């Protein structure tokens, strides 16, 4: 896990998990979170860049993946710029309220 801090306050984090199963051990799953008020100023790009640099040096990893809500346009734009491609779109995967849904997009990057 990599944590981003501003004046001693944790404002974001990123981590990569991989499977122990041999068939899936070459894939890393990325989770990232940036605190509201600190989004859109490059923290996500910095964290993702550092994590990808580490992952590229790891001889066991060949592919990384991450999921993103279809409404998170800024994150989707960043992920595309960093080489991720959309592979699956799960329609109405997440229910936000009684009549509000959002698609979940799965992206991959080969490293």
From TrEMBL:
Q: Which organism is it from?
A: Bacillus clarus
N-acetyltransferase domain sequence ranges: 1-103
Q: Name one GO molecular function term.
A: acyltransferase activity, transferring groups other than amino-acyl groups
| Protein name per its UniProtKB record | Acetyltransferase domain protein
Q: Name one Pfam family in it.
A: Acetyltransf_1
From the UniProt annotation, give the residues forming the signal peptide: none
Q: List keywords of the entry alphabetically.
A: Transferase
Answer whether the UniProt record assigns the keyword Ubl conjugation to this protein. no
Query: Which InterPro entries does its entry note?
Result: Acyl_CoA_acyltransferase, GNAT_dom, MshD_Acetyltransferase
- Which PANTHER family does UniProt cross-reference here? L-AMINO ACID N-ACETYLTRANSFERASE, L-AMINO ACID N-ACETYLTRANSFERASE AAAT
């Amino acid at each position: 896990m990599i944590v981003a801090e501003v004046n001693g306050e944790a404002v974001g984090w990123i981590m990569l998990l991989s499977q122990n199963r041999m068939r899936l051990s070459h894939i890393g799953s990325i989770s990232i979170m940036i605190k509201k008020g600190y989004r859109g100023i490059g923290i996500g790009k910095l964290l993702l860049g550092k994590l990808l640099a580490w992952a590229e040096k790891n001889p066991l990893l060949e592919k990384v993946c991450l999921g993103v809500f279809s409404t998170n346009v800024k994150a989707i734009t960043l992920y595309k710029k960093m080489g991720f491609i959309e592979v699956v779109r799960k329609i109405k995967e997440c229910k936000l309220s009684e009549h509000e849904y959002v698609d979940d997009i799965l992206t991959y990057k080969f490293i």
